[in-house]
Amino acid sequence: MADRAALEDLVRVQGERVRGLKQQKASAEQIEEEVAKLLKLKAQLGPDEGKPKFVLKTPKGTRDYSPRQMAVREKVFDVIISCFKRHGAEVIDTPVFELKETLTGKYGEDSKLIYDLKDQGGELLSLRYDLTVPFARYLAMNKLTNIKRYHIAKVYRRDNPAMTRGRYREFYQCDFDIAGQFDPMLPDAECLKIMCEILSSLQIGDFLVKVNDRRILDGMFAICGVPDSKFRTICSSVDKLDKVSWEEVKNEMVGEKGLAPEVADRIGDYVQQHGGVSLVEQLLQDPKLSQNKQALEGLGDLKLLFEYLTLFGIADKISFDLSLARGLDYYTGVIYEAVLLQPPARAGEEPLGVGSVAAGGRYDGLVGMFDPKGRKVPCVGLSIGVERIFSIVEQRLEALEEKVRTTETQVLVASAQKKLLEERLKLISELWDAGIKAELLYKKNPKLLNQLQYCEETGIPLVAIIGEQELKDGVIKLRSVASREEEALSPLTCLTGFLLPAEPGLMTRRRHGRSAVEHKMLIPPCPSFLARWTSEEKTLWRKSKGEQASRFASAELSKLSEESGTHTI
C-alpha cells in the first residue's frame, strides 16, 4: 500500500512537470521525454481496482460553456434583453418543472418529447417544454388579463440533438409576449418588429420572416376536403415543407396519415404559394377560400398586419407563406417564423432558408384551458432561438480568429518592485470602493513583466503601477497597455479623475486642465477620498474636469455633507 502511495506521488510530480514544460513551451523532444517517463510510471502503477470507473461527459444533447463562449452568450442576451425592455416588457420567472397535466395535450405530436420526472411524493411532474404554456398557467393562476412580459430560461426536450446546428435537449428560450384584449394586429405587428430589430442588431446575416394564419390553414384544409379529425396531424406534415420536398410531405399525408391523394393535391396547390400583401389580396378573391369564414377572417387580419408592418418599415422582411404551419396545438391566429437566408448559388435564384432562428404567433385560447371558468386572455408572442444564434456567432468569431474578452476588468494594480503588497492592496480596495473593476495578481512579489503580460492576455486596458520612486514622489504611474503611454498621477487624481479608455489603447483622462485625449466616460470618485479633499483640491479638480465632472462631484459631496455635516463643495 505504501509502495502504491509513493508511486502515485511520483506520477503526480511527473504530471506537474509535463504540464509546466507545456506552459513554458519547451521543445517537443523534451516534452516527449518527460511524457514517456510519466507513462512508464503509470504503467508501474497499474489499474486501481478499488476506484469505480466512469466516463466523464455531459449528458447527450447538453454541453458546457467556456468563459469565451459565455462572454459571447452574454453579449447576445444583452442585445435581446435591451430590445425587450425598449418595448416596455416586464420580466417574470416560473419553475423549471410543471405538473404533468399542465403540459399534456398542448404540443400536438411533439408531446412525446416532454421529459417526465419520477414520482417524488404524489405529484406527477415534467420538465417544461417551452415558456409559453407556463406563462399561460401563470396568467390563469394569478387572474391576470393584461401584461407585457419577457422570460429567458432553459427548457427541455427529449429530441434527437444536432449540436453543430444548435439543437439540444437543454437550451435557452428568450420569449416576449403581450397578453390582453387590444385592437387587431397591433400587438402582433410589434412582435414582428421586435423580431426584426433583434435579428438585425445581432448581424448574423440576411433573414426572412414567414407569416401565415392558423385560421387560413384550417379554412384551406376544410375546402380541400380534409376531415376535421385530421386537421392537426395534416398541419404537422405541412410544417415539414421547409425541410423536405412537397412529394415527401404528400407521401406522408397519403401513406402514413390516410389522406386521399386528390385532397393532398388540392392542399399542394395552396401551400406552395408565397408572397406579400398581393398574395393576400389574391386569396381574398379565391372563389373557394373566400367562402370560408375562418379563412376570410385570417386573410383580413393579415392584410391589416401588412399595413402596420409597412408603417414599421419592415414589410420587405416579411413573406406570406402558406406552407408555414407551426405544429403546436395552442396557436389560434397569426403565426410566424424567421429563417436565415443563404445567398443564391446562381444569379436569378431565390435565397435559400438555412434554419429557423425565431418564431411565434397568437394563442388566444391557451389561458382559458387553465382558468376554472374558461375565461380567455388573448395572447401573442415570439421566441428567439438563441442556441442556433450562439452557434452562428461562435463559428463567425472562430473564422475571423477574433479575440473575445472574458472579463470586464478596467485596470490592473501592479507593482514595479518587491515588498509592495500592502500598497497594492490599499489601492485596489479604494478602486473597488469607487466602483472600478480592478484586479491584482495573487503573488506577494510578482514581476512587472508578468503583470503586463497578464493584461495583454486578458485584454485589461490600463495598469496602475506602484514603485519605490512613485511612493517617494507620491504618485501612481498609469499605463495604457496597448499604446504603452504612461503618465504619473497623484493617488487622488488616479482614483477620482482618471478616465478609462473608450477604445483599447487610448489614454483618456484629464488632469488639472492638461488634456491627454478627450474623455468619454467618467469613473465615479471614491467617497473616502472625496471626504479628505481640501477646498483647493475641490476647486482645482472642478476646473480641470469640466461641467459634467463638477456636477457629479457636487452630488457626491452633497451626500457626504448630509451624512456628516462637512465637506461641502
Automatic annotation (TrEMBL):
It catalyses: tRNA(His) + L-histidine + ATP = L-histidyl-tRNA(His) + AMP + diphosphate + H(+). Its EC number is 6.1.1.21. The keyword Nucleotide-binding applies. Residues 3-59 form the WHEP-TRS domain. PROSITE patterns: AA_TRNA_LIGASE_II, WHEP_TRS_1, WHEP_TRS_2. Catalyzes the ATP-dependent ligation of histidine to the 3'-end of its cognate tRNA, via the formation of an aminoacyl-adenylate intermediate (His-AMP). Plays a role in axon guidance. This is Histidine--tRNA ligase, cytoplasmic. It comes from Bos indicus.
